[in-house]
Amino acid sequence: MHDWIRKLFVERSALFLKLLNHRWSRTEELVDGIVKVLQDVGITSGNLLDLCCGNGRVSINMAKRGFRAVGIDISEAFLEDAREKAREHGVSTAVRFFEGDVRNLGQVIGRVPQPFDVVVSAWTSIGYYSQDDDLNIFRQARELAREGAILFVAETMHSEFLSLKFAPNSCMELDDIILMENRKYDPTTSQISTTWTFYRKRGMDLEFIDTAEFELHIYSSSELCSLLRKASWEPVASYTSLKTLQPINPLGHMNVVAKAQ
After folding, report:
1. Per-residue pLDDT of the chain (261 residues; tens, 9 = 90+)
2. Which one, out of 17, 144, 154, 210, has a CA that is 20 to 30 A from the CA of 138?
3. 96 neighbors 72 (Cβ within 8 angstroms)
4. What value does the CA radius of gyration of the chain take, rounded to a whole number of Å?
5. What CATH number did the domain enclosing 199 receive?
6. 112 shares its domain with 210
7. 107: containing domain
């Protein structure tokens, strides 16, 4: 495993959980869009696979819409929080969470009832490893899905956006935590290197907590669609927002919808 992945998602899971919880407020809009797209193709219920599920925001909210969800993540701390949230939302019997490396997807969830009708890879759940690894992940997901299943690669960054609006620094407030980001982007490799520095607010002062460094490959929309086709997923639509179904543009997120071939 890449060393930074374990450090960020396992060793520093308590800090990253604050960021995951921050994104829960945006999840209802995402799920509204997913459900609308699925209804348009006649899918109103079924089995859903949530790749790199974090603390279950997609799985749990889709379970509330009538789906049976399975989530996989490398962090047991994230999954413990997901199971607690599933109980709080009353969907414990409709969701199952598995700890494991998504690159070994078939092995980790091999005994789960299949096939899947829907597969979701939300936020920045791709680009952690090599492009060959990403291809293998989507191929395994295709093997676990039925013909005609729908895949969502949702809310992810794309290189067209970074070419126009790259910001080397930013700051975010997460309850009592301040997260400062410093980024470097290499357009020749579509690789972004990020350093996160966490501080705790102490009145008017900031107390240093920790730092985390990581790297991601940022796909272009055409590059991602080409990779999905190699994995037997045929892209059928690309949106900037799944809520509004606005077509993809360089100034927003990338949301690709693909169909299992």
Report:
1. 467 777 778 878 888 888 889 889 889 999 999 999 999 999 999 999 999 999 999 999 999 999 999 999 999 999 999 999 999 999 999 999 999 999 999 999 987 877 999 999 998 789 988 999 999 999 999 999 999 999 999 999 999 988 888 899 999 998 889 999 999 999 999 999 999 999 999 988 999 999 888 899 999 999 999 999 999 999 999 999 998 999 999 888 899 999 999
2. 17
3. no
4. 18
5. 3.30.160.300
6. no
7. 3-157+219-260
